[in-house]
Amino acid sequence: MPHGNTPAYHLAQLNIATIKYPKESEEMKDFMDALDGINLLAECSPGFVWRLKDDTGNATDYTMFDDKTLVNMSVWQDVASLHKYVYKSGHTHYIGRRKEWFEMPAEAHMVLWWVPAGHQPTVEEATERLLHLRNHGPSAQAFTFKQAYDAEGIEL
Hints:
This protein is α+β, with helices and mostly antiparallel strands. It has five helices and five strands, in the order E-H-E-E-E-H-H-H-E-H. The chain has helices at about 30-45, 80-85, 90-95, 100, 125-135, and strands at about 10-20, 50, 65, 65-75, 110-115. Strands 1, 2, 3, 4 and 5 form a five-stranded antiparallel beta sheet that branches. Strand 3 and strand 4 form a beta hairpin. The longest helix has 16 residues, at about 30-45. It is globular. The two termini are about 25 Å apart.
């Protein structure tokens, strides 16, 4: 049982994106060069808990479904903290440029779910949640910002 204000659950998020060009290409340079700063911004944002990293300090060595689909996964204290980082910080500028670097997804490419505080989700776990969302729509098991649930499974 948590003590005081220590939450029992944190919010995990996965988003994937299929690159249009090789990571080392000139077309991807602006994106690749921005990763360290954007990741630092996330880590310094209120509510940030953890993010998936590879040996470079980013997560560009991780892929999902194929070698062109990059993975971004992190854990936050709550939906509001993640939403603020994604849509009300310097991160928003790069969302506006995503069509330059990434194919536009035909199906769900982002999923949220609750994990026990202290748990670091795996890429395999995230894949299962994304596929659950794609196959069954939003639920307490796998949801989106548009149809979110709290840690008790109640729709927000």
